[in-house]
Amino acid sequence: MLELRAIDAAYGNIQVLHQVSLRVEHGEIVALIGANGAGKTTTLMAISGLVPPRRGAILFEGRPVNGLPPDALVRLGICQVPEGRHVFPGLSVAENLDMGAFLRRDRRQVATDKEQVYNLFPALRQRRHQPGGTLSGGEQQMLAISRALMARPRLLLLDEPSMGLAPLMTKHLFATIVAINREQQTTILLVEQNANVALQVADRGYVLENGHIVMQDTAEALRRAPAVQSAYLGI
Hints:
This protein is of the alpha/beta class. Helices cover 39% and strands 26% of the residues. It is built from ten helices and ten strands. Helix 7 links the parallel strand 7 and strand 8.
């Protein structure tokens, strides 16, 4: 579904990604793990069209998408849930969800999809008239994911979904991420600093260090790898 071929990305004169190659197949959850500053968020932003690669190629469904603007990528089915959630604080929960469906014209199906995300996250139904900025951190993360789902993505990019969340909320959130993948058949590329929880739910994974992919394998094999255990799992 998604393939990155030796992409380089930079902010001005500072190169962040070096020859990064990875792939995500239909129906997978793929984890991208690494320390702060490794280039994980930049990788997602390159896929989303926010930081265009200087070299290399990005293919979605076999089609080169380098240079396409973010809205065109959303129309193709690529949606990102950004680090830090970035909900619209002054809009209600329901209005935030409507913003996720901004590019759609099938209003009847939009209403059906809104009911589906309320079923996925019942707390949002209870707070649908409440401003997004007044929700707890966990509820805002639910809202950010739900807003992305309203665009009907085929590929969902999740950037640090557990950041700032209590362990119980993290466990609940990742169970829901697995449900989104399996029940809604949404392919997921997951960037997550909590490598243990990421590799528990992923099918495969990549390790990014200083802008370079240094390891790739099945999630289970990465969990057993001594280098990953010592660097990221605290073993």
